[in-house]
TrEMBL record:
It comes from Bradyrhizobium frederickii. This is Glutamine synthetase. It comes from the Bacteria. InterPro entries: Gln_synth/guanido_kin_cat_dom, Gln_synth_cat_dom. Residues 109-445 form the GS catalytic domain. The lineage of its organism: Bacteria, Pseudomonadati, Pseudomonadota, Alphaproteobacteria, Hyphomicrobiales.
Length: 445
């Protein structure tokens, strides 16, 4: 009996996975068999429940659907034929991205980003973006992390050794696999190295069109986690794995162009920072506290945003200053850009980028004053309670839910739905009693 070609990978476009981002930036999907998904965008039915689940598949009670909890039906899902790529170093595992359309488009993370990019395009600007991620590798699997306490988990490497050539050479087989996997998946990297912290690797994705960059970032996170498991490891993109180590960032590099010219660059301006770039940065700073939850969407995110951990603690900007929330990076017109340093690696790429660009475009439209750039440690110079970023997921969610600017940029329905999901996330975690609390208080208090 001949083998079904759909099971051999002979035509992966006919036996592909389809994935769509939920609010947490996690790809949810399934295999779709028998149709050539490379032949134009197709609309299929897919459960709307993925937009009402938290990261543990619990249904958020006050969900966007306004239906009884048992009534979740199917929604229209547009499969994006141009996004197909191989996502495994073991054979032909093919993936197409998708996005919700119809009534759900305005709460779909990819749809929210497209809304923001249309607003930039209305002003005549295109956005070029590159993501960079820090992630941690542990020599564990899904069973051992349940069986062992955290202190017994074994990271890939011991202790901090950022930019280590020795470790890169010693782990060249793993790095070679990551590089080959990304090349095969059309996720070109511009850098890959060990970062400070045990088992921490940083990968910089090459810059491209903004929507494509968010697509690549979303695929990259899921692909690295899957690849690690095939190697008997676990990869995590948590913002803060331990209070003993620095957090893991998800920085975003952004430039704007008009008529194929870098609109952030002005050869006659100080530091080559153009008027548009100053307006853009001013908007990012002005609305950073209100939009913060889009870049720091989890309870754990706020454990990274503390002094001394290479993360911002307040809205601030500086020229080539890594202590600031926004780092202006001067260079030739082809490289002149800003780095949005607020997000951790736990970001949803679509929503964090929507926040970074949406706030910048508001600055172009409304013209808020740009504060003086920071020279030196931004946390030392601006560590005042009135200037601090939100201190918790609860505070950030409240600011976002009450923000008229957020409703204007992202849409009222999305603001309501996402705020609901973040309140649920806060309530799911804040009542937990930790081992640290028991050790600190049990005997003494």
């Amino acid at each position: 009996m001949p083998t079904d070609p759909r099971l051999t990978g002979a035509n992966p476009a006919r036996a592909a996975m389809v994935g769509v981002s939920d609010f947490d930036g996690v790809l949810r999907g399934k295999h779709v068999l028998g149709e050539d998904l490379s032949d134009g965008d197709k609309v299929v039915k897919f459960s709307e429940a993925v937009l009402a689940w938290d990261c543990t598949d619990r249904v958020i009670p006050a969900s966007f659907t306004q239906k009884p909890l048992s009534a979740f039906g199917d929604a229209d899902l547009r499969i994006l034929s141009g996004t197909g790529r191989s996502v495994s170093h073991l054979g032909d595992q093919y993936l197409y991205l998708a996005e919700f359309t119809g009534p759900h488009e305005n709460i779909c993370p990819r749809g929210v980003l497209r809304r923001v990019l249309r607003r930039a395009a209305d002003h005549g600007y295109d956005c070029t973006v590159g993501f960079e991620f820090e992630f941690m590798l542990f020599k564990e699997n899904a069973d051992t992390i349940e069986e062992k306490s955290f202190g017994e988990w074994a990271p890939l490497t011991r202790g901090p050794f950022g930019y280590s050539i020795a470790r890169s050479v010693a782990q060249h087989e793993l790095f070679d696999e990551i590089l080959a996997l990304c090349e095969k998946a059309r996720l070109p990297l511009s850098g890959l190295h060990f970062e400070t912290g045990p088992g921490v690797v940083e990968a910089s994705l090459r810059h491209c069109d903004a929507l494509e960059a968010a697509d690549r970032a979303t695929i990259f996170k899921s692909m690295i986690k899957a690849w690690a498991q095939t190697r008997g490891m676990m990869a995590t993109f948590m913002a803060k794995v331990s209070e003993k180590w620095p957090g893991q960032s998800g920085h975003i590099h952004i430039s704007m162009s008009s008529d194929n010219q870098n609109a952030f660059y002005d050869s006659d301006a100080c530091g080559n920072v153009s008027k548009l770039m100053r307006q853009f940065i001013a908007g990012q700073l002005e609305y950073m506290n209100e939009f913060c939850v889009l870049a720091a969407p989890n309870f754990n995110s706020y454990k990274r945003l503390v002094p001394g951990c290479w993360a911002p603690i307040c809205p601030s900007w500086g020229v080539d200053n890594r202590s600031c929330a926004i780092r202006a990076i001067p260079g030739e017109p082809s490289a002149h850009r800003l780095e949005y340093r607020l997000p951790g690696a736990d970001l949803n790429p679509y929503l964090a980028l929507a926040s970074a660009i949406g706030s910048g475009i508001l600055g172009v439209e409304t013209g808020p004053a740009l504060p003086a750039s920071i020279v030196g440690d931004a946390s030392a110079e601006m560590c005042r309670s009135s200037a601090r970023l939100p201190q918790s997921l609860s505070e950030a969610t409240s600011r976002f839910a009450e923000s008229a600017a957020a409703s204007d940029v992202f849409g009222e329905r999305f603001v309501e739905a996402f705020s609901c999901s973040r309140r649920w996330e806060w309530e799911a975690v804040q009542h937990r009693v930790t081992d640290f609390e028991r050790r600190r208080y049990f005997e003494i208090i």
